[in-house]
Amino acid sequence: IMPIIYQKTTRRDFLRILGNGAGAVAAMTLFPSFAVAGKKDARLALFSDIHIPEDKTENYRGFYPYENLKKVVATVRESDVQGAVISGDLARLEGKKGDYMNLKQLLDPLAGKVPVAMAMGNHDRRDHFLEVFPEASGDKQQVKNRYVLVLDYPSVRVILLDSLIYTNLSPALGLLGKSQRTWLSNYLNKHRDKPVILVEHHTLGDNDGDLQDVEKLFDIIRSHEHVKAIIFGHSHVYRYDVRDDIHLINLPAVGYNFRDADPLGWVEATLTPKKGIFKLHAMMGNTAEDGKVTELKWR
Question: pTM for this one?
Answer without folding.
Answer: 0.89
